[in-house]
Amino acid sequence: MIDFRKVVRSFRFAGQGILDLFRFENNARVHLLVACIVVIAGLFLALSRIEWAIILTQIGLVWAAEAFNTAIEKLCDFVSPGIHPQIKAIKDLSSGAVLILTIMAVLAGILILGGHLLDIFLP
């Protein structure tokens, strides 16, 4: 039997994690700002359903990667508060993963939004 109170509590904890991500993490706020700009541009350019699916998936992936990166960094800081070469490598790899995903999201955005902009300005 499903205990719906536990499910609701789990969603509350997850929601708090999302709020904390955007409240305390500067890079997450940058990603949020860029996502808002992209969504506004997408509304203006009247993206298709498939284009929206791609854009929203990219936004979600970047946010999720940022959340994982933040969690890994906080865990590393808890386990080893001092400077340690292995902890540095772990943090660098984690932030590198966010950068890779962000670059791919930007390229997808350029392909989709850029194509629409070219159609407007170069008919």
From TrEMBL:
The keyword Ribosomal protein does not apply. The keyword Transmembrane helix applies. Its cofactor is Mg(2+). Keywords: ATP-binding, Kinase, Magnesium, Membrane, Metal-binding, Nucleotide-binding, Transferase, Transmembrane, Transmembrane helix. The chain crosses the membrane at residues 30-47, 93-118. It comes from the Bacteria. Mn(2+), Zn(2+), Cd(2+) and Co(2+) support activity to lesser extents. Pfam families: DAGK_prokar (PF01219). Gene3D superfamilies: Diacylglycerol kinase (DAGK) domain. GO terms for biological process: phospholipid biosynthetic process. The active site is at E66 (proton acceptor). CDD domains: UDPK_IM_like. A divalent metal cation binds at E25, E73. One of its GO terms (molecular function) is ATP binding. GO terms for cellular component: membrane. This is Undecaprenol kinase. ATP binds at E25, E73, K91, D92. It comes from Spirosoma fluviale. Substrate binds at E66, S95. Coiled coil: none annotated.
